[in-house]
C-alpha cells in the first residue's frame, strides 16, 4: 500500500476512533477545538494574487541510512536538481509494515527520520505543498537504517563520538575539547550519544578547540584530514573548521566576508551557499580549481563534512562528495583545530555534533582543568585607568603546579595586542598571543579575536596569601583608542584531579511543539523595486510582497505548524483574508497584494500582517509596516 493510500486509510480510522472516544467520554471532557478556517476576502482597493498551476511532485527521492536514522532528500537537496514547480514546502510520510504512517510537514527539501528500528524497510513518501495548501501526488521510496561506514578510518590523531560526556567537560582532566561561547547563552550537554549545543540568545556561536594538535603527514598526497558529523550546516546555519598555527580558542571576526584571520590560518566555511576556503596572510595559494558547489540541507539533518589538506590544496567533502576546493597549501606542519557552529541568526537554536576527529599521530592531552573567571570590567583598560574593586578567587590556584589565565579579546579600534597585560591584584603579567594577531601596519584588524595567555606566577600558587586577587582586569597602552572587549576568560590549571565535577546539566529534549512561520511585508513599486517608506507615496499603486517563512519555523522542531491563511489589516480594519489550507495545512509561501493608495485617505497608514494557524492552540504571528500616502 502506498503512503498516500495508507495515510487516507489512517485518517478514516482515526475519525471512527475519535467518534467512539467522544461518545464514551463526552461527559468527562470537551471535544477538541475545531480547526481555524480562513474565509477568502479582499477589499475593492486590493488585488490579491491567487493560486496558479498545481504543484508538481518531486521527480526523485533519495534515501540513505545511518544508525537508527534515515536521511531523505529530494529537489535541490540532490546535486544538480531543482525543487518541484510550485513548492512552498512538503509533507513526508513514513512507516514500516504493521505501523500506521507518521507525517511531517517541512519547508526544506530534506529530512532526517530518527528513532527507527535496525534492519527494517520503511515505506517513505514525499509530496509537494504549494503556497495555498494544495498537494501534489506522492513520490515513493524505500529505506532502511544502516551504519556510518568506514569514514572513521584514518582519524588517528583524535576521534570523539561524544558518547562520554567527560570528553567535553572542562572540569575533567581528560577532556578532549575546550568550548568557547558566551557564558549564559551557550550551553552544552550530551543526549543520545551526541554533543548538543544550545545557543539561547539568538546570535551566538560556539567553538570547540581540540586539546590535541593536528600534525600533518603525507599519505598518498593527503597531508591531513578533519571530519565532523553535524547538523550545524543545515538551513541558515553555519559550520566553520579553522586550522591555525598556535593554540587560540577562537580566531577571526564575525564578518564572514572579511574574516581577519591570523597568519597561516585556513578556514573552511560550510553554509547554505556551499563551502568556501578562506586563508590568512602567508598561505601560498595556487590558482583555485573550480568549486562544484553543494546541494541544500535540511534542518536537523546530520551530514559528514570532511576537510582534506593535500599537497595541491584543500578539498571539502559532504558525505563523500566534493563541495568545495581551494589551491591553498599551508606551510605549517602542526595546527590547532577549531570547530565552530552557529544556528540561524536572530533565533534560539540547537545544534548536534555526532562525531568529530582528525588524522595524524596521537599526542598526549595535557592534564588541565578550567575555572571560569570574570574580569572586573569587560573593557580593556589603559595602564593608568582606575579599576573596579572586583577580583578572582585564589582558592583553585592553591597547590597547583602551574596555571595560566587564558583570555580572548576583540578590538573595535587600532590596537597593538603585544602590549596586553593581565592584572591580578598588584601583579601585572604580560599576556602572550597564542597565534599571530591579524595586523595591518602594526595594528590589529578591527573585530578580530585574539587569544592571549598569561602564566600565573608560582608564588600565587602557594597555600599562603590572600583569598582573592583584586582587581582582575586587562590593560594595554592606548586602550581608549583600541576599544578592546573581553569575550571570554578562564583559568587553565595543570592538574591530575578533576575540579569537583559533580553532576553536569544536560539540555533536555525540546518539547515537540511546532512553530507557526513568521511573516514579512515589503512594499514594492509596479516594477518590483523596493519603495522607500520615509516619504509620502501619494496616490500610486504599490505591491505588498508577503513572505510566510516556513524555513524559519522548522528550526525549533524540524517541522512546521500548519498555516490556515493570513489576514491584512489596514489601519485596524480587515482588508484581506487569504486561505492557504485548501487541501490541507499550509507551510507558508510567497504572495503579492496590489494596493491602490489613491483609494485610501491621505496620510499615514499601518499595515498589519497576521499569519493564522490551523490549530487554534498555536499562537498567531504578526508584523507591522507603516507608510504614508
Mean pLDDT: 89
Sheet-strand content, in percent, reads 35-45%
Number-wise, the strands total 43
DSSP helix count? 3
Largest sheet: 8 strands, antiparallel
Give me the secondary-structure category.
mainly beta
- The end-to-end distance, rounded to whole angstroms, is 58 Å
Radius of gyration, in angstroms, nearest whole number = 28 Å
Shape: globular
Helix content: under 10%
Poorly predicted spans: 1-29
Name a few traits of the molecule.
629 residues; mainly beta; eight-stranded antiparallel β-sheet; seven-stranded antiparallel β-sheet; 3 helices; globular
Description:
By secondary structure, this protein is mainly beta. It is 5% helix and 40% strand. Strands 10, 12, 13, 16, 20, 21, 22 and 24 form an eight-stranded antiparallel beta sheet that branches. 44% of the residues are buried.
Summarize the structure.
By secondary structure, this protein is mostly beta strands.
Question: What's the structural blueprint in terms of helices and strands?
Answer:
Elements lengths: L2 H23 L15 E2 L3 E3 L12 E6 L2 E6 L14 E7 L6 E5 L3 E5 L7 E8 L9 E5 L14 E3 L16 E4 L5 E6 L2 E6 L5 E6 L3 E2 L6 E9 L7 E7 L21 E6 L2 E6 L23 E8 L2 E6 L2 E6 L7 E9 L6 E10 L9 E5 L19 E2 L9 E9 L9 E4 L2 E4 L1 E2 L5 E2 L2 E2 L4 E7 L12 E2 L2 E4 L3 H4 L1 E11 L24 E6 L16 E8 L1 H5 L8 E8 L2 E7 L9 E8 L7 E10 L7 E8 L1
Antiparallel strand pairs: 1-40, 2-41, 3-4, 4-7, 5-6, 5-8, 8-9, 10-24, 11-14, 12-13, 13-24, 14-23, 15-23, 16-20, 16-24, 17-18, 17-23, 18-19, 20-21, 21-22, 25-36, 26-34, 27-33, 27-36, 28-29, 28-35, 30-33, 31-32, 37-38, 38-41, 39-40, 39-42, 42-43
Amino acid at each position: 500500500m502506498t503512503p498516500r493510500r495508507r495515510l487516507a486509510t489512517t485518517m478514516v480510522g482515526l475519525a471512527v476512533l475519535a467518534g467512539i472516544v467522544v461518545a464514551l467520554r463526552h461527559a468527562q471532557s470537551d471535544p477538541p477545538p475545531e480547526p481555524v478556517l480562513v474565509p477568502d476576502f479582499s477589499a475593492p482597493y486590493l488585488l490579491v494574487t491567487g493560486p496558479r498551476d498545481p504543484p508538481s511532485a518531486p521527480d526523485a527521492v533519495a534515501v540513505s541510512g545511518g544508525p537508527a536514522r534515515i536521511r531523505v532528500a529530494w529537489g535541490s537537496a540532490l546535486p544538480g536538481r531543482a525543487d518541484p514547480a510550485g513548492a512552498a514546502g512538503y509533507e513526508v510520510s513514513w512507516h514500516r509494515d504493521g505501523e500506521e504512517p507518521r507525517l511531517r510537514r517541512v519547508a526544506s527539501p530534506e529530512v532526517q527520520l530518527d528513532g527507527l528500528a535496525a534492519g527494517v524497510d520503511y515505506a517513505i513518501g514525499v509530496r509537494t505543498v504549494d503556497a495555498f495548501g494544495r498537494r501534489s501526488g506522492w513520490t515513493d521510496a524505500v529505506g532502511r537504517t544502516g551504519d556510518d561506514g568506514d569514514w572513521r578510518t584514518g582519524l588517528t590523531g583524535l576521534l570523539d563520538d561524544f558518547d562520554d560526556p567527560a570528553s567535553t567537560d572542562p572540569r575533567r582532566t581528560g577532556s578532549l575539547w575546550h568550548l568557547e561561547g558566551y557564558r549564559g547563552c551557550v550551553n552544552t550537554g550530551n543526549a543520545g550519544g551526541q554533543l548538543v549545543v544550545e545557543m539561547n540568545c539568538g546570535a551566538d556561536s560556539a567553538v570547540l578547540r581540540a586539546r590535541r594538535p593536528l600534525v600533518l603527514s603525507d599519505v598518498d598526497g593527503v597531508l591531513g584530514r578533519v571530519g565532523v558529523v553535524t547538523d550545524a550546516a543545515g538551513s541558515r546555519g553555519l559550520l566553520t573548521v579553522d586550522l591555525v598555527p598556535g593554540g587560540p580558542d577562537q580566531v577571526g571576526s564575525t564578518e564572514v566576508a572579511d574574516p581577519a584571520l591570523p597568519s597561516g590560518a585556513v578556514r573552511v566555511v560550510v553554509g547554505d551557499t556551499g563551502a568556501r576556503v578562506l586563508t590568512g596572510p602567508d598561505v601560498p595559494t595556487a590558482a583555485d580549481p573550480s568549486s562544484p558547489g553543494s546541494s541544500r540541507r535540511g534542518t536537523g539533518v546530520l551530514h559528514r563534512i570532511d576537510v582534506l589538506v593535500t599537497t595541491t590544496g584543500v578539498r571539502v567533502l559532504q558525505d563523500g562528495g566534493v563541495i568545495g576546493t581551494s589551491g591553498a597549501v599551508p606551510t605549517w606542519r602542526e595546527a590547532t583545530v577549531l570547530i565552530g557552529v552557529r544556528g540561524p541568526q536572530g533565533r534560539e537554536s540547537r545544534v548536534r555534533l555526532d562525531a568529530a576527529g582528525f588524522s595524524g599521530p596521537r599526542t598526549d592531552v595535557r592534564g588541565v582543568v578550567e575555572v571560569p573567571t570574570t574580569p572586573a570590567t569587560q573593557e580593556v583598560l589603559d595602564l593608568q585607568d582606575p579599576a573596579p574593586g572586583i577580583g578572582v578567587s585564589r582558592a583553585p590556584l592553591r597547590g597547583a603546579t602551574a596555571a595560566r589565565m587564558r583570555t580572548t579579546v576583540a578590538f573595535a579600534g587600532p590596537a597593538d595586542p603585544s602590549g596586553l597585560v593581565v592584572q591580578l591584584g598588584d601583579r601585572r603579567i604580560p599576556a602572550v598571543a597564542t597565534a599571530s594577531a591579524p595586523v595591518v601596519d602594526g595594528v590589529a584588524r578591527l573585530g578580530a579575536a585574539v587569544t592571549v595567555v598569561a602564566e600565573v606566577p608560582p608564588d600565587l600558587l602557594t597555600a599562603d596569601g590572600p583569598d582573592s586577587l583584586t582587581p582582575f582586569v586587562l590593560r594595554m597602552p592606548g586602550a581608549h583608542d583600541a576599544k578592546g572587549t573581553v569575550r571570554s576568560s578562564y583559568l587553565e590549571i595543570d592538574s591530575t584531579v578533576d575540579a569537583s565535577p559533580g553532576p553536569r546539566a544536560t539540555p533536555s529534549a525540546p518539547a515537540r511543539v511546532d512553530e507557526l512561520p513568521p511573516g514579512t511585508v515589503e512594499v514594492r513599486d509596479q516594477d518590483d523595486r523596493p519603495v522607500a517608506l520615509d516619504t509620502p507615496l501619494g496616490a500610486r499603486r504599490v505591491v505588498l510582497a508577503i513572505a510566510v517563512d516556513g524555513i524559519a519555523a522548522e528550526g525549533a522542531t524540524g517541522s512546521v505548524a500548519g498555516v490556515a491563511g493570513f489576514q491584512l489589516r489596514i489601519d485596524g480594519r480587515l482588508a484581506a483574508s487569504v486561505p492557504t489550507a485548501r487541501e490541507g495545512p499550509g507551510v507558508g509561501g510567497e504572495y503579492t497584494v496590489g494596493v491602490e493608495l489613491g483609494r485610501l485617505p491621505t496620510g499615514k497608514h499601518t499595515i498589519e500582517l497576521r499569519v493564522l494557524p490551523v490549530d487554534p492552540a498555536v499562537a498567531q504571528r504578526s508584523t507591522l509596516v507603516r507608510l504614508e500616502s
